[in-house]
User: What shape does this take?
Amino acid sequence: MNTRLLIVVLTLGAVIASALGVVYTRHQSRQIAVHLGELEIHRDDVIAEWSRLQLEQAWLGDAGNIETTARDQLGMATPASTRILVIGHE
Amino acid sequence: MNNESRNMAPIGRLYGFLLIFLLCSVALIARAVNLQVTETEFLQGQGEARFMRDLVVPTRRGNIVDRSGEPLAVSTPVDSVWVHPGELLQSPENIAPLAAVLKSDAEEMERHLNQRSGKEFVWLRRRLHPDVAAAIEALDLPGVYLQKEYRRFYPAGEVAAQVIGFTNIDEVGQEGLELTYNDWLQGKPGLMRVIRDQRGRTVEYSEVLREAEHGHDLALTIDRRLQYLAYRELKQTVLKHGASSGSVVLLDIATGEVLAMVNQPSYNPNQPGTDGEGLRNRAVTDVFEPGSVMKTFSIAAALEAGIVVPTSPIETSPGSINVSGHTISDHRNYGLIDVTGIITKSSNVGATKLALQLQPEQLWSVYNRFGFGEVTGSGFPGESAGVLRNYRHWRRVEQATLSYGYGLSATVLQLAEAFAAIADEGRLRRPSLVQGASNPAVSIIDPKYAREVAAMLETVTSEQGTGKSARVGNYRVSGKTGTSRKASAGGYASRYVATFAGFAPASNPRIVAVVTINDPSAGEYFGGLVAAPLFSTVMGGALRLLDIPPDNYTEVVAQSEANEPASIGEIDGGAD
Assistant: This one.
């Protein structure tokens, strides 16, 4: 009789504990999901930033722009072949 | 008594209250049963609709990069604004500020939305400027939403426009490699069911309905520096000679990789307009009669057939020859020359005399093996195969004209492929535009004949040759000029195609370049005068950019070491 009561009480306790556990983990999983969402947004922002930087770099590194700057602003020119010194590397 | 009546009243009240509570609970239970049993489906559906969302997991279209990883096409996110007309029209006073931010007419917008009030999704404006998107977000109106979309940018602009192509507003490839490799670049958007709280944050991922597959990057064999160089020079040449169009193709001989492929006219792929002329990748889609550059292959056929050797004498006097009633003539009478001289001087008579000694099948077979009349297999959309008629249908005069490049048509890329095979001792490789393509070399002609033809081609840039202006300082250049009249309805018009096809350095060929200029109208029209100088600047720049040592490398070093003090002094003087 006493054993049976004990089992019932213990089971009841376990049920309550597991119910609380479910509530807790569920809460936790939602919090983590929110965090994941934030991180994904951050990741997307970073990827977006990266693509913008790539574009900016491509624009700055554009041969046309570099050439214009070199020729017009820095007064650079391609040297004639007679003025090129070939250096051996063997 | 008094006591009794005092006791009775509370008992009556007690029962009264009990009854009321009982009724209340019965009502509650009845309602609960009603909700739980009869309306449960509707309510659950409504409830889920309020927090369950099927979320499309967008994929980013892969970038297109050149051979060294420099971006040629990049997708970057921008905001687009859409509205739920029903929600927005509940408070029409919100339309005015929205229209103000978008700089559009409020009344018209209201009319537009009223017409679509039954819908749940209407695009208002796509690809917003980031500032406008921020302003709309700040307004925070009900029924107005921002959607992240990707927009594609092409930093190389018109320089590589036709090769890369472009996408439509939904980022689906429309032209060029964007079209060919659309599936590879695009990826597949995923679908995910999520639970969101009232602030729109995702609080739980309940299930993945479809896994997202992101777009892959595409690495081309194009070298952005060479592409730019070739484009700049081509544009200048087309302008200078009043030409209608032109193309340049550069191939890496050892791998068959396309290093540069440029066309004029071009367009800005960042704002593709309606101008159809610039859209075509002429180097691959347009065919022309190659003219004298084909002598390279008819002489190869003659050598292979064993009827001549490079030093065999050929009489070309009096500078013309009659074939089945047609007169084929040279620019002037070259007299007695050898087979090499046919290439050096570009003698139609000489080429005709050799071709007529061949069996039609022998000539056809060589042309066919070099890839004429067949698509190169570069995988470019709309690629032309050109026309090479079967030798069984050839008339005698056709066999003669074919030997100097009339009566067949080819693309610039086909010519480049064929010249690369001559340069690589008779090994033909399918040209490739994308890295990692498998294109094993096929030996199509005895290396001996390929070397002999290559040696003849070097004489073209000699003092006596037709292609002197294709020379590049410190390098030996092999090549062949071509000038062909364009076929038109009434025979051949006085419109020309100037061509130069060649490779360098001659002692160890690394790069093939083919240049064509259509309709030069400013006086000069010979391949040697119009196309060869362009070849020279592009080839010279390419050899320098790719660090390819000159043929007479040790000689050049010795020479500059001997001149060292003078050269240094000169350079110092120049810097002052």
